[in-house]
Structures are given as structure tokens and as C-alpha cells.
Amino acid sequence: MTDYAEEQRNELEAIESIYPDSFTDVEATLKFTYVERYPDEPPLWEIYAQENLEDGDVSEVLTLLQQQAEENLGMVMIFTLVTAVQEKLNEIVDLKKNRQEEEKRQKELEAEEAEKVLFQGTVVTIENFLAWKAVFELDMMELRRKRQKEEEQAGKPKLTGKQLFETDHNLDTSDIQFLEDAGNNVEVDESLFQDIEDLDLDEDDPDFDPLGMDSDED
């Protein structure tokens, strides 16, 4: 007949000699309670006062205890269970350390990349140049509108087309640039000139001045 009480006392003395203070790991505390028919039946166990353990970690430890207890039925198993849990906790700690180190390396890489961008500036591409150009042209259009409004409010006369041409020298080359961009192929709407023959142009008049027509219109 098996003397369960004797086996339990012997195991307890052996465990106390290995762990003289407690059965406490850095990450968790395990509490085991013998049942009457231990070791033919598994002991009761409890995990409490765990530190730095997530819910998933606790679930894995409990599952491990159940598996180890079933595999060691009929034999004293507390030391085996504690050892298995210690190895599992060490594995969890290593995973946490590796994750922390990886996060640290990632932050360092991000800081280095940010420093490079700050040192090198923004690389100009076709896309970001066109985006900048569109914003710049809108800003210039708004600035000209405000300036024109201020001049009108100040009582300055609005410039005619001829005056704009004379003051803005960029207009001197705008048509040339347009022709270059178009490859010297410019389409003309001939319908604009269909009624030119109906104009009363008295070229025999000695006072006729075609250049003066523009100035009169202005």
C-alpha cells in the first residue's frame, strides 16, 4: 500500500532544500496543494503575484502545468512542474527582451533617418516640384489680386493692355516662349477674321494711321 503522506513529506523536504526561502520566481509565485491521492492524482496549483506577465503568458503557464501533471502521474512531480514553469518564464523574459531590443533598434533607425532628412533637406522630384509650383502660382495670383485691389482703393487707374505690356517685360518674350513650346505650330481660328473685309478702312486717307487705332481704343 502506498504511503502517500510519506512520499509527500520526502518531496517537500527535498524542495525546501533546493528553494530554502520560497518557491518564488522573479516573474511569478506558484502555490501547490497536495491532494489525498497525490502523486496518483495531480496536486492543486495556483499562480498569483505575477509581475510583468500578460494574460496570454499566464494562460500558457497554466496549460503547461496541466500537460506536465498529466505526463507525470504516479510520480512526485512538484519539482518537475516548477522547473517547467521556470523554463517557460525564462522563455517569456527572453521574448520580452528581444522585443524591447528590436523596438529600441527601430527607434534608433527612425532617429537616424530623421537626422539624415534634416541634414540633406528635401529631395526635389518632378512630383513635389509640380506640387510646389501649383501652390506658388496660386499664391502669386492671390498676391496680384490683393495688390490690384489695394491700388484700386488708393485711386490708381487700372492699367490698360498696352501699359501692362510696357511695364511687364515678361510679356515681351511670352509669345516667343509660347511658340517654342508649341513647336512653332499654332492653330488660328479663321472665323475671327471672316468679317475683316467689312471693316471700313480708308487707306487712301492721308490722315489714316493704323497704329493710332490702338491708342484711340486705349
UniProtKB/TrEMBL annotation:
PROSITE patterns in alphabetical order: RWD
Q: Which InterPro entries match?
A: GIR2-like, RWD_dom, UBQ-conjugating_enzyme/RWD
UniProt-annotated stretches for the region Disordered? 189-218
Keyword Coiled coil set for record: yes
Q: Which UniProt keywords apply?
A: Coiled coil
Q: Which SMART domains match?
A: RWD
| Domain annotation RWD: ranges | 1-92
Q: Which residues form a coiled coil?
A: 85-153
Which named protein is this? Answer: RWD domain-containing protein
Native organism = Scophthalmus maximus (Turbot)
